[in-house]
Every structure is written in C-alpha cells, then in structure tokens.
Specification:
Number of helices: 13
Number of domains: 2
Helix content: 25-40%
CATH class of the largest domain: Alpha Beta
Largest sheet: 7 strands, parallel
Radius of gyration: 19 Å
Strand content: 15-25%
CATH architecture of the largest domain: 3-Layer(aba) Sandwich
Distance between the termini: 61 Å
CATH topology of the largest domain: Rossmann fold
Length: 327
C-alpha cells in the first residue's frame, strides 16, 4: 500500500520551497501526494496564490480558508487546527510535511503530533528574535524529522534535545529551483508583470510582531528613503502578519510613482528571476539573507527581523533610518 504524504502550504514563499519536493513525491510512484492549501494562499488580497498550486499540475489539493481580514494569530492557529484535523481524519496520512514558522505550520505540527502522525519540519533551528522564533522552536519540539538549512541550525536542535539521528542538513530547500535551467527568461517575467525598468532593486518589508508600536514611523521613513534614492523598485506586499495593513497602505500610495511597481505577490519562479538580475535587495525578508547571496546579489537588511540568521559578506545590516540606509 503506497504511503500517503501530506504537505501543508500557507504562503507563496513556502510553496516555492516545497514545490520541488512535492514534485519528487508525486513522481516517485510509491507515494500518494496530498496538499493542504491555506493561509495567504486563499486570500484574494494577496493574489490567490493557491491557484499556483493547481497550475503546477498537482491533483489532490484541498483549499481551506482559515481566516478573515484582521484575524489575530491565535484565531488563525485555532481555525487551522480545526480544519486540518477534519481533513486528516478523512485522508489519514502517514507523514505530514511542514515548513518554517507560520501559525499554520504550528497548527500542522500540533495536529500531526496529537494524532500520532509522523511530522517532518523543514528549516527548523533558525533564530530571529521575534515571535517567529518561538513558533519555529515549538514546531521543532512537536516534529519527529528535521531537515535544516545549515550546521548551526542542527546544533540548536541538538541543544533543544532533538536526536542527531533525526536531523538532516539539506541546505535551503529552494536551491533546486534556484539553480534550475527551467526558470523563465527575465524579459518574459518583465513583460508579464509590466515592469519597464532596465535596472531595479527589490523591496519587501514585513512587520515585526514585537515592535509594532513604531511601525508606522519606521515604514514611512524607509519608503521615503527609497523615493529619495532616485532608483527603480519592484515592491512586494508583506506577509499577512499584524501590522501588514500599515505597510500595504503606504505601498499603495506609490501606485502612481513611475519608479515603483507594486505587487501583492509574484510567482516564486518569477521572483527568483527578478532577484537574480536585481541591482540589490532591500528590506527585512529572509530572501535577502538566503536567496540573494546565492545569486551574488547585494542585500541591505533592515532592522533585527533576521537577527541570528547565517550571514554572508554580500549582506549589509543597517538600522531602519534614512541616515543609515543612504550611508
């Protein structure tokens, strides 16, 4: 009897990282692939990115709306637990694969552990100093198998009491896609998204849950600094975390600025192509400290959201102030 493997995906980013593994499972012939699609994927505001899962050709897909606008993280967690529990009761998977540090991934770890289902966690052992880190470590303690990005992450899991036999260092899981020769051409991506720039930088800025009180002022100063720099920017919405509305509102105010192109989301493959050919990336996204260095692209990492992540020489860490950014 083929083993059933269930993947949980809730964002454009984690699907990009999980896609090649999903494909390998689907083509192996000895497994039955199921995909539980939820979170940002099913929110029209963020581009209905769950459609990309279907366009990838996967068959057994279940979409679950786990939130309404402005739902808090605890409500999202509770709703996801309820929906996933019902789905697992029907499908009875042998293995549940989750990624990262989102509330939906924590729900997956809880449901899997409580139902005696083997849980595999990808990219555990990372630190950031925000609530994301606490969520990620909680997931790791509930998971049974750990696929980490580097030896530092492995050491952290060992210090947390996880067994070395269950920890595997695999690198960043999107490297297969990043080094693939099937990525679209730059001109194709620019034509599809109507990006007129010859030279541009990428900008993605996420709220940090532990410091929301100054988010309005910080994000205003950052965006004003980008305008002052007199460069072209491809800007992407933040994740749907508390405070994201503040950033989105300020991005939308740039719609008529000819030096900015604003997108709720980009296909992960398209994002990688744009990143590969960008002058630099600026913001506080993990892509600035993971994907950008792989392509040799300089990054300006703002603030402390990525504190503790492995750093390359191409990354410039700077405070979220105009003086520091323009220095």
């Amino acid at each position: 009897m083929p083993k059933k493997i269930l993947f949980l995906t809730s964002t454009r980013a984690d699907f990009g990282k999980l896609k090649s593994l999903m494909r390998a499972v689907d083509l192996a012939g000895e497994f039955i692939l199921h995909i539980f699609v939820t979170g940002m994927h099913v929110l029209p505001k963020y581009g209905n990115t769950g459609d990309e899962v279907e366009k990838a050709g996967f068959k057994s897909i279940f979409k679950f709306i786990n939130q309404k606008s402005n739902d808090t993280m605890d409500c999202i967690l509770a709703n996801t637990i309820q929906g996933l529990t019902s789905y697992i009761g029907l499908q009875k998977p042998d293995l549940l694969v989750i990624h990262g540090d989102r509330a939906e991934a924590l729900a997956g770890a809880i449901v899997g552990a409580f139902n005696n289902i083997l849980v595999a966690h990808i990219e555990g052992g990372e630190i950031s100093g925000a609530i994301d880190e606490s969520i990620r470590h909680s997931i790791s303690k509930l998971a049974h198998l750990h696929f980490v990005a580097n030896t530092e992450a492995k050491q952290r899991l060992l210090h947390m009491g996880e067994s070395s036999a269950n920890i595997f260092v695999i690198g960043s899981p999107d490297l297969d896609l990043m080094s693939s020769d099937t990525l679209p051409a730059l001109e194709e991506v620019k034509r599809y998204y109507e990006i007129p720039f010859e030279r541009y930088a990428l900008f993605t800025y996420h709220p940090v849950s532990s410091s929301l009180q100054n988010l309005m002022a910080r994000s205003k100063e950052i965006i004003a600094t980008l305008k002052q720099s007199d460069r072209n920017y491809v800007a992407i919405y933040p994740n749907n975390d508390p405070g994201s509305e503040i950033i989105i509102e300020q991005l939308e105010a740039l719609r008529n600025d000819k030096r900015f192109r604003i997108f709720p989301s980009l296909r992960f493959e398209s994002f990688l192509v744009l990143l590969k050919h960008a002058e630099f990336m600026i913001g506080n996204s993990s892509a600035a400290v993971r994907e950008a260095p792989f392509y040799g692209i300089r990054s300006i990492n703002l603030g402390d959201r990525q504190n503790g992540r492995f750093q390359c020489d191409s990354i410039i860490n700077t405070p979220e102030t105009a003086v520091a950014i323009l220095a």
